[in-house]
């Protein structure tokens, strides 16, 4: 198997619901999203897919969150906007448009030392 990954940042604010602590207040992050895809074979250019195409697809998904308040953006207007839930939502959005490769996992970093990952077996 081959695996490739790209990462992209977006800036957004959120607050955590049902949480006791400072993160229950509105605050922002420069979120880093890393997406990985796998394939058992390479295309005619000897790639899983072009990094540029993967990054472009990720940017399209992230555009709806960039410089927004996540608690007001569906599905986070009803779903707690934790890094775990953000990772799952981005995974589901990308899975719907991923062709020619298998989505492996999505990691969402809310700081340089803290991330959550989501994948399906």
Q: Can you walk through the features of this model?
A:
The protein has 121 residues and is an alpha+beta fold. The chain has a single domain (2-118), classed as 2-Layer Sandwich (Tetrahydropterin Synthase, Chain A). The chain is built from two helices and five strands, in the order E-E-H-E-H-E-E. The protein has helices spanning 51-62, 83-95, and strands at residues 2-14, 27-39, 68-69, 102-111, 114-118. The protein has a five-stranded mixed sheet. The model has no long low-confidence stretch (mean pLDDT 95).
What order do the helices and strands come in, and which of them pair?
Elements: E1 2-14, E2 27-39, H1 51-62, E3 68-69, H2 83-95, E4 102-111, E5 114-118
The computed structural class is alpha+beta
The SSE string, one letter per element, is EEHEHEE
The strand count comes to 5
What's the tally of helices?
2
The CATH superfamily is 6-pyruvoyl tetrahydropterin synthase/QueD
CATH class: Alpha Beta
Q: Main sheet, how many strands, which sense, barrel?
A: 5 strands, mixed
Going across the biggest sheet, name each strand in turn: 3-1-2-4-5
Spatial separation of the terminal alpha carbons: 15 Å
Low-confidence stretches: none
Could you say how many structural domains there are in total?
A: 1
User: What is the average per-residue confidence, as pLDDT, rounded to a whole number?
Assistant: 95
Helix content: 10-25%
The fold-level CATH name is: Tetrahydropterin Synthase, Chain A
CA gyration radius, whole angstroms = 15 Å
- Report the β-strand fraction as a percent range: 35-45%
CATH architectural category: 2-Layer Sandwich
């Amino acid at each position: 198997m081959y695996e490739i990954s790209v990462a992209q940042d977006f800036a957004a604010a959120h607050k955590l619901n049902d949480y006791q602590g400072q993160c229950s207040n509105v605050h922002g992050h420069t979120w880093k999203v890393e997406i990985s895809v796998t394939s058992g074979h390479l295309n005619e250019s000897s790639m899983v897919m072009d990094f540029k195409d993967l990054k472009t697809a990720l940017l399209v998904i992230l555009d709806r969150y960039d410089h927004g308040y996540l608690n007001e953006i569906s599905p986070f207007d009803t779903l707690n906007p934790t890094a775990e839930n953000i990772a799952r939502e981005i995974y589901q959005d990308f899975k719907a448009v991923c062709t020619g490769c298998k989505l492996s996992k999505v990691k969402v970093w809310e700081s340089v030392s803290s991330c959550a990952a989501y994948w399906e077996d």
